[in-house]
Task: inverse folding
């Protein structure tokens, strides 16, 4: 099919977007967001954080209480849904069961009075690899194929923004992974802005250029997946996006681009760019795969913030890696994921170990935040 590239400057802009439901519950709280034209954007958050409400306001299915929605300089806040250059793919696909796949895909064009639809439908079926299914009815298709019909049916309308509300939620894990890659390829081919709503952090990180982590109606942090993962700014993001060890410490000073923290008697360094506080108490954060261990006294490959006197509490061999639960000398249990490089066998529970991580991998968060935020949702 021909490229449906976005007009430059047609970013999706949400300004002060707010939704208070009639019962007084504020589901979305003054959201300010710019989603660049042509990007793959993921809105990620636990159930009930306000993702769907945000999406429905952009689609025109929910009236905002306050704020504006614009595409480029065109404000669409109060436009009827069908007047917006926006289409939605829902989790349940909402296909017409009595129409063939071709007819389902042609639906939007026909409704707009277009007579010649054959070539566009053919192109769209090719793009979504459904050519062989053209004459079938939705019930004769697999879940993944139905999902692609829903996508083709939305894309044929050449929207500027495609909203995807948990579009892969009904598929099993393996198919979901395959569809994630396909969706991403289709997005880069058509160049339309995709806004993907999901509670699945892996899905958001795999697919999106930019991920916005939403919690209780506000965006906690937004950025490229690697940026969010490596340098989370809040305990919620640190726990919701992957796993984090968060260890209490007290800032003792700042020198040459690092913040020094007294962590239960061990002085550790944190890169200033990853220190989200530089005074008082804080949570020292370290991802489990960045934690290196070795039997007591043995040299650790990449020494850094070094601690002795830890004990393995649990070892789970996962094939690709071993996941250790390690009790630190101050009693806290931390996670360590060790890649199965074949260098040594699994260390059994009870093994005395030393622990180390490179200072550049640690981050520091303000201790006023709940250390368990985002954890139960994961
Ligand atoms: P999920 O992934 O479960 O769909 P979500 O992040 O999309 O969650 P929303 O559907 O946007 O969340 O809902 C946000 C909050 O608003 C929830 O607490 C929900 O209970 C509440 N809510 C949604 N619709 C209404 C309504 N019509 N009246 C009152 N509260 C509502």
Result:
């Amino acid at each position: 099919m021909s490229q449906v590239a976005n007009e430059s400057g047609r970013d999706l802009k949400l300004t002060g977007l707010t939704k208070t439901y009639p019962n007084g519950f504020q589901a979305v709280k003054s959201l300010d967001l710019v989603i660049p034209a042509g990007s793959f954007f993921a809105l990620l958050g636990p159930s009930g954080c306000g993702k769907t409400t945000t999406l429905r306001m952009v689609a025109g299915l929910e009236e905002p209480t306050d704020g504006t929605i614009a595409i480029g300089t065109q404000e669409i806040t109060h436009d009827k849904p069908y007047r917006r250059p926006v289409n939605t793919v829902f989790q349940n696909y909402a296909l017409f069961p009595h129409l063939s796949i071709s007819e389902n895909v042609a639906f939007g064009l026909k409704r707009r009075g277009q007579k010649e639809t054959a070539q566009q439908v053919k192109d769209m079926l090719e793009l979504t690899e459904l050519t062989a299914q053209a004459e079938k009815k939705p019930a004769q298709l697999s879940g993944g194929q139905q999902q692609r019909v829903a996508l083709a049916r939305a894309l044929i309308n050449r929207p500027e923004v495609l909203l995807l509300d948990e579009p892969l939620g009904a598929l099993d894990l393996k198919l979901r992974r395959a569809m994630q890659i396909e969706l991403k390829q289709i997005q880069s081919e058509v160049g339309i802005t995709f806004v993907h709503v999901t509670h699945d952090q892996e899905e958001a990180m795999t697919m999106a250029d930019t991920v916005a982590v939403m919690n209780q109606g506000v965006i906690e942090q937004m950025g490229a997946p690697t940026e969010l993962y490596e340098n989370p700014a809040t305990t919620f993001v640190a726990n919701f996006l992957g796993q984090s060890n968060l260890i209490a410490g007290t800032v003792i000073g700042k020198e040459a681009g690092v913040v020094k923290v007294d962590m239960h008697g061990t002085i550790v360094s944190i890169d200033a760019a990853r220190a989200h506080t530089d005074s008082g108490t804080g949570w020292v954060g370290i991802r489990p795969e960045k934690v290196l261990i070795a039997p007591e006294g043995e040299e650790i490959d990449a020494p850094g913030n070094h601690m002795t006197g830890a004990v393995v509490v649990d070892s789970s061999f996962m094939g690709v890696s071993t996941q250790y639960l390690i009790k630190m000398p101050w009693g806290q249990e931390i996670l360590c994921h060790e890649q199965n490089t074949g260098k040594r066998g699994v260390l059994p529970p009870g093994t005395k170990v030393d622990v180390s991580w490179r200072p550049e991998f640690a981050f520091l968060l303000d201790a006023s935040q709940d250390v368990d935020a985002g954890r139960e949702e994961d």
In short: The pocket of adenosine-5'-triphosphate is lined by residues 21, 23, 25, 27, 45, 47-53, 199 (CB under 6 Å). The chain has two domains: 2-230, 243-366.
